[in-house]
Protein backbone atom coordinates (compact mmCIF):
# COMPACT_ATOMS: atom_id res chain seq x y z
CA UNK A 1 0.00 0.00 0.00
CA UNK A 2 2.74 2.44 0.86
CA UNK A 3 4.35 4.52 -1.85
CA UNK A 4 8.00 5.48 -1.27
CA UNK A 5 8.92 9.12 -1.67
CA UNK A 6 10.26 10.28 -4.99
CA UNK A 7 13.70 10.65 -3.41
CA UNK A 8 13.71 7.04 -2.29
CA UNK A 9 12.87 6.00 -5.83
CA UNK A 10 15.74 8.04 -7.25
CA UNK A 11 18.73 6.19 -8.82
CA UNK A 12 21.94 8.02 -9.83
CA UNK A 13 22.10 8.67 -13.55
CA UNK A 14 18.52 7.66 -14.25
CA UNK A 15 16.32 10.15 -16.07
CA UNK A 16 14.20 10.90 -19.08
CA UNK A 17 16.73 12.78 -21.20
CA UNK A 18 16.13 10.92 -24.45
CA UNK A 19 16.42 14.10 -26.52
CA UNK A 20 19.68 14.33 -28.51
CA UNK A 21 22.37 16.67 -27.15
CA UNK A 22 21.96 20.27 -28.18
CA UNK A 23 24.33 21.51 -30.89
CA UNK A 24 24.10 25.09 -29.64
CA UNK A 25 27.22 26.01 -27.64
CA UNK A 26 26.23 25.96 -23.94
CA UNK A 27 26.17 29.14 -21.87
CA UNK A 28 27.66 28.62 -18.45
CA UNK A 29 25.70 29.47 -15.33
CA UNK A 30 28.35 32.06 -14.42
CA UNK A 31 27.62 33.94 -17.65
CA UNK A 32 23.88 34.20 -16.87
CA UNK A 33 23.58 34.52 -13.10
CA UNK A 34 25.43 36.94 -10.79
CA UNK A 35 28.10 35.11 -8.82
CA UNK A 36 26.59 35.88 -5.42
CA UNK A 37 23.32 34.23 -6.45
CA UNK A 38 24.87 30.95 -7.67
CA UNK A 39 24.37 27.77 -5.65
CA UNK A 40 27.41 26.37 -3.90
CA UNK A 41 26.24 22.78 -4.35
CA UNK A 42 23.94 21.33 -7.03
CA UNK A 43 20.34 20.81 -5.81
CA UNK A 44 19.44 17.31 -4.67
CA UNK A 45 16.84 16.50 -7.29
CA UNK A 46 15.46 13.00 -7.71
CA UNK A 47 16.66 11.07 -10.75
CA UNK A 48 13.84 9.00 -12.16
CA UNK A 49 12.50 7.83 -15.51
CA UNK A 50 9.38 9.38 -16.96
CA UNK A 51 7.21 6.28 -16.55
CA UNK A 52 8.19 5.83 -12.90
CA UNK A 53 7.55 9.50 -12.28
CA UNK A 54 4.11 9.24 -13.89
CA UNK A 55 3.20 6.14 -11.89
CA UNK A 56 4.42 7.71 -8.67
CA UNK A 57 2.19 10.77 -8.93
CA UNK A 58 -0.77 8.88 -10.38
CA UNK A 59 -0.63 6.42 -7.46
CA UNK A 60 -0.46 9.29 -4.98
CA UNK A 61 -3.41 11.02 -6.63
CA UNK A 62 -5.44 7.83 -6.29
CA UNK A 63 -4.90 7.79 -2.55
CA UNK A 64 -6.71 11.09 -2.35
CA UNK A 65 -10.41 11.03 -1.60
CA UNK A 66 -12.28 13.59 -3.67
CA UNK A 67 -15.71 14.57 -4.78
CA UNK A 68 -15.05 12.84 -8.12
CA UNK A 69 -14.47 9.53 -6.34
CA UNK A 70 -17.13 9.35 -3.64
CA UNK A 71 -19.83 10.74 -1.34
CA UNK A 72 -18.66 13.57 0.91
CA UNK A 73 -21.20 14.34 3.69
CA UNK A 74 -18.93 16.91 5.36
CA UNK A 75 -21.30 19.21 7.26
CA UNK A 76 -21.00 22.98 6.82
CA UNK A 77 -18.65 22.53 3.85
CA UNK A 78 -21.14 21.93 0.99
CA UNK A 79 -18.94 19.43 -0.84
CA UNK A 80 -20.89 19.43 -4.07
CA UNK A 81 -19.89 18.15 -7.47
CA UNK A 82 -17.84 20.67 -9.47
CA UNK A 83 -19.28 20.59 -12.99
CA UNK A 84 -16.51 20.18 -15.57
CA UNK A 85 -17.97 22.97 -17.72
CA UNK A 86 -16.66 25.35 -15.02
CA UNK A 87 -13.14 24.12 -15.72
CA UNK A 88 -13.59 24.37 -19.49
CA UNK A 89 -14.69 27.99 -19.24
CA UNK A 90 -11.97 28.95 -16.75
CA UNK A 91 -9.39 27.46 -19.16
CA UNK A 92 -10.42 29.69 -22.08
CA UNK A 93 -7.45 31.74 -23.22
CA UNK A 94 -9.35 34.99 -22.75
CA UNK A 95 -9.70 34.22 -19.06
CA UNK A 96 -6.63 32.12 -18.30
CA UNK A 97 -3.95 34.05 -20.20
CA UNK A 98 -4.68 37.65 -19.27
CA UNK A 99 -2.77 39.82 -16.83
CA UNK A 100 -4.36 41.97 -14.12
CA UNK A 101 -2.34 44.98 -15.28
CA UNK A 102 -3.69 44.87 -18.85
CA UNK A 103 -5.52 48.05 -19.91
CA UNK A 104 -9.30 47.94 -19.47
CA UNK A 105 -10.02 47.98 -23.21
CA UNK A 106 -8.11 44.70 -23.69
CA UNK A 107 -10.01 42.77 -21.01
CA UNK A 108 -13.60 43.88 -21.48
CA UNK A 109 -14.91 40.31 -21.32
CA UNK A 110 -13.21 39.62 -18.00
CA UNK A 111 -14.44 42.90 -16.52
CA UNK A 112 -17.97 42.21 -17.77
CA UNK A 113 -17.87 38.81 -16.08
CA UNK A 114 -16.87 40.40 -12.75
CA UNK A 115 -19.60 43.02 -13.15
CA UNK A 116 -22.28 40.44 -13.93
CA UNK A 117 -21.16 38.10 -11.15
CA UNK A 118 -21.50 40.96 -8.69
CA UNK A 119 -25.00 41.67 -10.03
CA UNK A 120 -25.99 38.00 -9.75
CA UNK A 121 -24.78 37.83 -6.14
CA UNK A 122 -26.73 41.01 -5.35
CA UNK A 123 -29.87 39.47 -6.85
CA UNK A 124 -29.39 36.20 -4.94
CA UNK A 125 -28.73 37.92 -1.60
CA UNK A 126 -30.79 41.09 -1.80
CA UNK A 127 -27.70 43.24 -1.21
CA UNK A 128 -26.94 46.52 -3.01
CA UNK A 129 -23.27 45.88 -3.83
CA UNK A 130 -20.63 43.16 -3.54
CA UNK A 131 -16.83 43.11 -3.44
CA UNK A 132 -15.35 40.02 -5.07
CA UNK A 133 -11.93 40.44 -3.44
CA UNK A 134 -11.89 38.29 -0.29
CA UNK A 135 -10.37 34.88 -0.98
CA UNK A 136 -12.30 32.81 1.57
CA UNK A 137 -15.33 32.98 3.81
CA UNK A 138 -13.15 33.88 6.76
CA UNK A 139 -11.63 36.80 4.85
CA UNK A 140 -15.12 37.91 3.82
CA UNK A 141 -16.00 37.93 7.53
CA UNK A 142 -12.99 40.09 8.31
CA UNK A 143 -13.99 42.47 5.49
CA UNK A 144 -17.53 42.59 6.88
CA UNK A 145 -16.30 43.37 10.39
CA UNK A 146 -13.98 46.10 9.11
CA UNK A 147 -16.94 47.56 7.19
CA UNK A 148 -19.04 47.51 10.38
CA UNK A 149 -16.24 49.27 12.25
CA UNK A 150 -15.80 51.90 9.53
CA UNK A 151 -19.56 52.52 9.47
CA UNK A 152 -19.80 53.07 13.23
CA UNK A 153 -16.74 55.30 13.31
CA UNK A 154 -18.20 57.41 10.48
CA UNK A 155 -21.46 57.64 12.45
CA UNK A 156 -19.53 58.97 15.41
CA UNK A 157 -19.70 55.93 17.71
CA UNK A 158 -16.81 53.60 18.44
CA UNK A 159 -18.77 50.49 19.25
CA UNK A 160 -16.69 47.74 20.77
CA UNK A 161 -18.82 44.61 20.93
CA UNK A 162 -19.87 41.95 18.45
CA UNK A 163 -22.45 39.36 19.49
CA UNK A 164 -22.13 35.79 18.26
CA UNK A 165 -24.27 32.72 19.03
CA UNK A 166 -22.72 29.79 20.91
CA UNK A 167 -23.35 27.57 17.86
CA UNK A 168 -21.20 29.72 15.54
CA UNK A 169 -18.28 28.63 13.38
CA UNK A 170 -14.91 29.42 14.98
CA UNK A 171 -13.97 31.88 12.25
CA UNK A 172 -16.76 34.27 13.40
CA UNK A 173 -15.25 35.20 16.78
CA UNK A 174 -11.76 35.12 15.24
CA UNK A 175 -12.75 37.63 12.53
CA UNK A 176 -14.51 39.92 15.01
CA UNK A 177 -11.47 39.88 17.31
CA UNK A 178 -9.09 40.52 14.40
CA UNK A 179 -11.13 43.61 13.50
CA UNK A 180 -10.66 44.89 17.05
CA UNK A 181 -13.99 43.94 18.63
CA UNK A 182 -14.64 42.06 21.83
CA UNK A 183 -16.94 39.08 21.45
CA UNK A 184 -20.02 38.40 23.51
CA UNK A 185 -21.78 35.06 23.22
CA UNK A 186 -25.56 34.72 22.96
CA UNK A 187 -27.05 31.39 24.01
CA UNK A 188 -29.12 28.98 21.95
CA UNK A 189 -32.47 27.81 23.34
CA UNK A 190 -33.76 24.24 23.60
CA UNK A 191 -34.96 24.50 19.99
CA UNK A 192 -31.38 25.07 18.79
CA UNK A 193 -32.00 28.65 17.70
CA UNK A 194 -31.12 32.00 19.30
CA UNK A 195 -32.60 32.65 22.72
CA UNK A 196 -34.38 35.98 22.16
CA UNK A 197 -34.52 36.75 25.89
CA UNK A 198 -30.76 36.32 26.14
CA UNK A 199 -30.26 38.38 22.97
CA UNK A 200 -32.29 41.29 24.41
CA UNK A 201 -30.07 41.18 27.50
CA UNK A 202 -26.75 41.36 25.66
CA UNK A 203 -27.65 43.82 22.87
CA UNK A 204 -26.99 47.45 23.78
CA UNK A 205 -25.60 50.69 22.36
CA UNK A 206 -22.08 49.26 22.58
CA UNK A 207 -23.07 46.56 20.09
CA UNK A 208 -21.56 46.97 16.64
CA UNK A 209 -23.08 43.87 15.06
CA UNK A 210 -24.68 40.47 15.53
CA UNK A 211 -23.00 37.78 13.42
CA UNK A 212 -25.46 35.09 12.52
CA UNK A 213 -25.52 31.97 10.36
CA UNK A 214 -28.93 31.20 8.86
CA UNK A 215 -29.77 28.39 8.59
CA UNK A 216 -27.55 27.99 11.62
CA UNK A 217 -24.82 25.40 12.07
CA UNK A 218 -27.41 22.89 13.29
CA UNK A 219 -29.10 23.21 9.89
CA UNK A 220 -32.08 24.99 11.51
CA UNK A 221 -33.69 28.09 10.09
CA UNK A 222 -33.84 30.99 12.55
CA UNK A 223 -37.59 31.46 12.41
CA UNK A 224 -37.47 34.59 14.55
CA UNK A 225 -35.11 36.30 12.16
CA UNK A 226 -37.33 39.37 11.64
CA UNK A 227 -37.62 39.90 15.41
CA UNK A 228 -33.85 39.40 15.75
CA UNK A 229 -33.22 42.01 13.03
CA UNK A 230 -35.49 44.44 14.83
CA UNK A 231 -33.74 43.98 18.20
CA UNK A 232 -30.37 44.58 16.57
CA UNK A 233 -31.44 47.54 14.45
CA UNK A 234 -33.23 49.27 17.32
CA UNK A 235 -29.89 50.01 18.97
CA UNK A 236 -28.24 51.04 15.70
CA UNK A 237 -26.22 47.81 15.36
CA UNK A 238 -25.73 45.87 12.12
CA UNK A 239 -26.85 42.34 11.28
CA UNK A 240 -24.16 40.20 9.63
CA UNK A 241 -24.87 36.95 7.81
CA UNK A 242 -22.27 34.21 7.68
CA UNK A 243 -23.45 32.99 4.28
CA UNK A 244 -21.72 29.59 4.40
CA UNK A 245 -25.15 27.94 4.46
CA UNK A 246 -26.53 29.77 1.44
CA UNK A 247 -27.01 26.44 -0.31
CA UNK A 248 -30.28 26.17 1.61
CA UNK A 249 -31.63 29.57 0.55
CA UNK A 250 -30.99 30.01 -3.19
CA UNK A 251 -34.05 31.39 -4.90
CA UNK A 252 -36.21 30.62 -1.84
CA UNK A 253 -35.49 33.67 0.28
CA UNK A 254 -32.91 36.45 0.43
CA UNK A 255 -30.75 37.60 3.35
CA UNK A 256 -31.55 41.22 2.45
CA UNK A 257 -35.28 40.51 2.88
CA UNK A 258 -34.58 39.03 6.32
CA UNK A 259 -32.91 42.25 7.48
CA UNK A 260 -29.23 41.39 7.05
CA UNK A 261 -26.94 44.37 6.36
CA UNK A 262 -23.74 42.51 5.44
CA UNK A 263 -23.37 39.03 3.92
CA UNK A 264 -20.40 36.94 2.89
CA UNK A 265 -20.62 34.19 0.29
CA UNK A 266 -18.47 31.08 0.09
CA UNK A 267 -18.33 30.63 -3.68
CA UNK A 268 -16.35 27.43 -3.15
CA UNK A 269 -19.28 25.99 -1.19
CA UNK A 270 -22.54 27.27 -2.64
CA UNK A 271 -21.35 27.82 -6.19
CA UNK A 272 -19.42 24.60 -6.65
CA UNK A 273 -15.85 25.74 -7.16
CA UNK A 274 -13.32 23.15 -5.93
CA UNK A 275 -12.28 23.37 -2.30
CA UNK A 276 -10.51 21.49 0.42
CA UNK A 277 -6.78 21.00 0.71
CA UNK A 278 -6.25 24.71 1.17
CA UNK A 279 -6.72 25.58 -2.49
CA UNK A 280 -7.92 28.98 -3.65
CA UNK A 281 -11.46 29.94 -2.67
CA UNK A 282 -13.52 33.10 -2.91
CA UNK A 283 -15.52 34.81 -0.17
CA UNK A 284 -17.17 37.91 -1.68
CA UNK A 285 -18.80 40.29 0.77
CA UNK A 286 -22.06 42.11 0.03
CA UNK A 287 -23.66 45.08 1.76
CA UNK A 288 -26.80 47.15 1.93
CA UNK A 289 -27.00 50.58 0.21
CA UNK A 290 -25.83 52.64 3.20
CA UNK A 291 -22.64 50.57 3.55
CA UNK A 292 -21.56 50.76 -0.11
CA UNK A 293 -18.91 53.46 0.51
CA UNK A 294 -16.97 51.09 2.80
CA UNK A 295 -16.61 48.12 0.42
CA UNK A 296 -13.10 47.01 -0.58
CA UNK A 297 -11.98 48.53 -3.87
CA UNK A 298 -11.74 48.68 -6.78
CA UNK A 299 -15.04 47.38 -8.22
CA UNK A 300 -16.06 47.26 -11.86
CA UNK A 301 -18.54 49.87 -13.14
CA UNK A 302 -20.37 50.03 -16.44
CA UNK A 303 -20.39 53.19 -18.52
CA UNK A 304 -22.12 53.29 -21.91
CA UNK A 305 -21.61 49.60 -22.52
CA UNK A 306 -17.91 49.67 -21.45
CA UNK A 307 -16.56 48.14 -18.26
CA UNK A 308 -14.09 50.11 -16.17
CA UNK A 309 -12.49 50.10 -12.74
CA UNK A 310 -14.55 52.49 -10.62
CA UNK A 311 -13.18 55.50 -8.76
CA UNK A 312 -12.17 54.97 -5.18
CA UNK A 313 -14.25 56.08 -2.21
CA UNK A 314 -12.49 57.89 0.64
CA UNK A 315 -14.33 55.65 3.13
CA UNK A 316 -13.38 52.28 1.60
CA UNK A 317 -11.72 49.83 3.99
CA UNK A 318 -9.11 49.35 1.24
CA UNK A 319 -7.85 46.18 -0.37
CA UNK A 320 -7.96 42.64 1.01
CA UNK A 321 -6.25 40.96 -1.90
CA UNK A 322 -3.77 41.81 -4.61
CA UNK A 323 -5.56 42.91 -7.77
CA UNK A 324 -9.18 41.70 -7.89
CA UNK A 325 -9.50 38.42 -5.98
CA UNK A 326 -9.13 34.81 -7.14
CA UNK A 327 -10.24 35.46 -10.69
CA UNK A 328 -10.25 31.81 -11.86
CA UNK A 329 -12.58 30.87 -9.02
CA UNK A 330 -14.87 33.78 -9.87
CA UNK A 331 -15.10 32.52 -13.48
CA UNK A 332 -16.11 29.06 -12.25
CA UNK A 333 -18.78 30.42 -9.88
CA UNK A 334 -20.19 32.67 -12.59
CA UNK A 335 -20.37 29.72 -14.99
CA UNK A 336 -22.23 27.68 -12.40
CA UNK A 337 -24.74 30.44 -11.71
CA UNK A 338 -25.41 31.10 -15.40
CA UNK A 339 -25.56 27.40 -16.28
CA UNK A 340 -28.32 26.87 -13.71
CA UNK A 341 -30.27 30.09 -14.12
CA UNK A 342 -32.77 31.33 -11.58
CA UNK A 343 -34.97 28.23 -11.63
CA UNK A 344 -32.04 25.87 -11.50
CA UNK A 345 -30.64 27.66 -8.45
CA UNK A 346 -33.84 27.30 -6.48
CA UNK A 347 -34.02 23.63 -7.52
CA UNK A 348 -30.54 23.22 -5.98
CA UNK A 349 -31.74 24.42 -2.58
CA UNK A 350 -35.00 22.47 -2.71
CA UNK A 351 -33.14 19.25 -3.51
CA UNK A 352 -30.46 19.83 -0.87
CA UNK A 353 -33.17 20.38 1.76
CA UNK A 354 -35.17 17.35 0.64
CA UNK A 355 -32.10 15.09 0.69
CA UNK A 356 -31.02 16.27 4.15
CA UNK A 357 -34.47 15.62 5.58
CA UNK A 358 -34.53 12.17 3.99
CA UNK A 359 -31.16 11.33 5.55
CA UNK A 360 -32.18 12.77 8.92
CA UNK A 361 -35.32 10.65 8.98
CA UNK A 362 -33.52 7.46 7.95
CA UNK A 363 -30.45 7.88 10.18
CA UNK A 364 -32.57 9.19 13.04
CA UNK A 365 -33.99 5.67 13.37
CA UNK A 366 -30.67 4.42 14.77
CA UNK A 367 -28.66 7.50 15.84
CA UNK A 368 -30.21 10.30 17.96
CA UNK A 369 -30.74 13.63 16.15
CA UNK A 370 -29.50 16.58 18.25
CA UNK A 371 -32.48 18.85 17.49
CA UNK A 372 -35.14 16.83 15.77
CA UNK A 373 -37.03 19.44 13.77
CA UNK A 374 -37.42 19.72 10.01
CA UNK A 375 -33.96 20.78 8.88
CA UNK A 376 -32.60 22.79 6.00
CA UNK A 377 -29.61 21.44 4.03
CA UNK A 378 -27.87 19.71 6.94
CA UNK A 379 -28.47 18.30 10.42
CA UNK A 380 -26.53 17.11 13.45
CA UNK A 381 -26.54 13.70 15.14
CA UNK A 382 -25.34 13.25 18.70
CA UNK A 383 -23.71 9.95 19.61
CA UNK A 384 -22.89 10.65 23.24
CA UNK A 385 -24.88 7.62 24.43
CA UNK A 386 -22.15 5.41 22.96
CA UNK A 387 -19.54 6.88 25.31
CA UNK A 388 -20.38 4.08 27.75
CA UNK A 389 -19.07 1.68 25.10
CA UNK A 390 -16.04 3.93 24.64
CA UNK A 391 -17.20 4.90 21.17
CA UNK A 392 -16.88 8.56 20.17
CA UNK A 393 -18.06 10.56 17.18
CA UNK A 394 -14.62 10.36 15.57
CA UNK A 395 -14.64 6.53 15.80
CA UNK A 396 -17.77 6.41 13.67
CA UNK A 397 -16.27 8.97 11.31
CA UNK A 398 -13.06 6.93 10.93
CA UNK A 399 -15.01 3.71 10.42
CA UNK A 400 -16.86 5.28 7.48
CA UNK A 401 -13.52 5.45 5.67
CA UNK A 402 -13.48 1.63 5.67
CA UNK A 403 -16.88 1.75 3.97
CA UNK A 404 -15.49 4.04 1.26
CA UNK A 405 -17.28 7.18 2.46
CA UNK A 406 -15.74 10.43 3.57
CA UNK A 407 -16.42 11.21 7.26
CA UNK A 408 -18.94 13.87 8.28
CA UNK A 409 -17.81 16.88 10.32
CA UNK A 410 -17.28 15.85 13.96
CA UNK A 411 -17.58 17.70 17.29
CA UNK A 412 -19.03 20.83 15.69
CA UNK A 413 -21.10 22.82 16.52
CA UNK A 414 -19.65 22.99 20.02
CA UNK A 415 -23.05 23.05 21.73
CA UNK A 416 -23.68 19.42 20.70
CA UNK A 417 -21.71 16.70 22.48
CA UNK A 418 -20.25 13.98 20.24
CA UNK A 419 -21.67 15.68 17.16
CA UNK A 420 -21.74 14.22 13.67
CA UNK A 421 -22.73 17.01 11.32
CA UNK A 422 -24.08 15.75 8.03
CA UNK A 423 -24.67 17.73 4.88
CA UNK A 424 -25.76 16.31 1.59
CA UNK A 425 -25.48 18.53 -1.46
CA UNK A 426 -28.17 18.37 -4.12
CA UNK A 427 -25.80 16.69 -6.56
CA UNK A 428 -26.06 13.32 -4.75
CA UNK A 429 -28.50 10.69 -6.02
CA UNK A 430 -30.88 8.76 -3.77
CA UNK A 431 -28.68 5.70 -4.38
CA UNK A 432 -25.62 7.50 -2.91
CA UNK A 433 -27.68 8.57 0.09
CA UNK A 434 -28.93 5.00 0.53
CA UNK A 435 -25.43 3.54 0.45
CA UNK A 436 -24.42 6.04 3.15
CA UNK A 437 -27.44 4.97 5.23
CA UNK A 438 -26.47 1.31 4.75
CA UNK A 439 -22.91 2.00 5.95
CA UNK A 440 -24.14 3.96 8.97
CA UNK A 441 -26.54 1.14 9.85
CA UNK A 442 -23.74 -1.43 9.59
CA UNK A 443 -21.56 0.68 11.90
CA UNK A 444 -24.45 0.96 14.36
CA UNK A 445 -24.57 -2.84 14.49
CA UNK A 446 -20.81 -3.04 14.97
CA UNK A 447 -21.03 -0.67 17.93
CA UNK A 448 -23.13 -3.35 19.68
CA UNK A 449 -21.47 -6.47 18.36
CA UNK A 450 -17.86 -5.58 17.56
CA UNK A 451 -17.00 -2.13 18.97
CA UNK A 452 -13.27 -2.88 18.61
CA UNK A 453 -13.54 -2.70 14.81
CA UNK A 454 -15.01 0.80 15.15
CA UNK A 455 -12.43 1.95 17.69
CA UNK A 456 -9.55 0.71 15.53
CA UNK A 457 -10.77 2.14 12.23
CA UNK A 458 -9.69 2.89 9.61
CA UNK A 459 -8.13 -0.40 8.59
CA UNK A 460 -8.38 -0.06 4.83
CA UNK A 461 -6.94 3.43 4.34
CA UNK A 462 -3.36 4.10 3.20
CA UNK A 463 -2.65 5.18 6.79
CA UNK A 464 -4.32 4.36 10.10
CA UNK A 465 -5.22 6.95 12.73
CA UNK A 466 -3.04 9.97 12.60
CA UNK A 467 -2.12 12.18 15.51
CA UNK A 468 -4.20 15.09 14.28
CA UNK A 469 -2.94 17.57 16.87
CA UNK A 470 0.72 16.88 16.04
CA UNK A 471 -0.07 16.87 12.33
CA UNK A 472 -1.55 20.35 12.60
CA UNK A 473 0.95 21.81 15.05
CA UNK A 474 4.16 20.25 13.78
CA UNK A 475 3.45 19.99 10.09
CA UNK A 476 6.60 18.84 8.30
CA UNK A 477 6.29 18.25 4.57
CA UNK A 478 9.98 18.61 3.73
CA UNK A 479 12.13 15.63 2.84
CA UNK A 480 15.45 16.02 4.57
CA UNK A 481 17.32 12.97 3.32
CA UNK A 482 17.29 9.29 4.23
CA UNK A 483 16.68 8.79 7.96
C1 LIG B 1 -16.80 27.26 5.93
C2 LIG B 1 -17.40 28.14 6.93
C3 LIG B 1 -16.79 29.37 7.28
C4 LIG B 1 -15.42 29.79 6.78
O1 LIG B 1 -15.32 29.82 5.40
P1 LIG B 1 -13.93 29.57 4.66
O2 LIG B 1 -14.27 29.80 3.24
O3 LIG B 1 -13.53 28.17 4.97
O4 LIG B 1 -12.95 30.56 5.19
C5 LIG B 1 -17.46 30.19 8.15
N1 LIG B 1 -18.64 29.84 8.70
C6 LIG B 1 -19.24 28.66 8.41
C7 LIG B 1 -20.56 28.33 9.05
C8 LIG B 1 -18.63 27.76 7.53
O5 LIG B 1 -19.21 26.60 7.25
Features:
Aspartate Aminotransferase, domain 1, 3-stranded antiparallel β-sheet, binds pyridoxal-5'-phosphate, alpha/beta, 483 residues, globular, 16 helices, Aspartate Aminotransferase, domain 2, single chain
Reading off the top of the CATH hierarchy, the class of the largest domain is best stated as Alpha Beta
Query: What is the assembly state of the chains in this entry?
Result: single chain
The best one-word shape is globular
The level of helicity is 25-40%
Major sheet strand order:
1-7-6-5-4-2-3
* Radius of gyration based on Cα positions: 26 Å
The succession of helices and strands, N to C, reads: HHHHHEHEHEHEHEHEHEEEHEHEEHHH
* Nearest-integer average pLDDT: 95
Q: Which cofactor or ligand species appear?
A: pyridoxal-5'-phosphate
Counted by DSSP, the helix tally is: 16
Count of the domains: 3
Name the structural class.
alpha/beta
Write down the CATH topology of the largest domain: Aspartate Aminotransferase, domain 2
Q: Uncertain regions: pLDDT < 50 for 5+ in a row? A: none
> How much of the sequence is in beta strands?
5-15%
* The CATH homologous superfamily of the largest domain: Type I PLP-dependent aspartate aminotransferase-like (Major domain)
Amino acid sequence: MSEPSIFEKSRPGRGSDYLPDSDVPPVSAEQMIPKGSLRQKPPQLPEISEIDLMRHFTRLSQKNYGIDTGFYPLGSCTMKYNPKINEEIAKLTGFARIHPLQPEQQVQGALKLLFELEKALCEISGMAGVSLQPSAGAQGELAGMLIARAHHIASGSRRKKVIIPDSAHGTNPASAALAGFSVQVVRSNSEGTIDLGDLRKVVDRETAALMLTNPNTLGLFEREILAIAQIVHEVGALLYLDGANLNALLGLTRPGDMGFDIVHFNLHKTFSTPHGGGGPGAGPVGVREKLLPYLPEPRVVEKEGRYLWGKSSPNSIGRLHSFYGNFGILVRAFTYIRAHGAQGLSRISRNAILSANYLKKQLGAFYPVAYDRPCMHEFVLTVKKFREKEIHAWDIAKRLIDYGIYPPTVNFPLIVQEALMIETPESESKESLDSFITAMRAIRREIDEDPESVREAPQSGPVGRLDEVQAAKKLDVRYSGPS
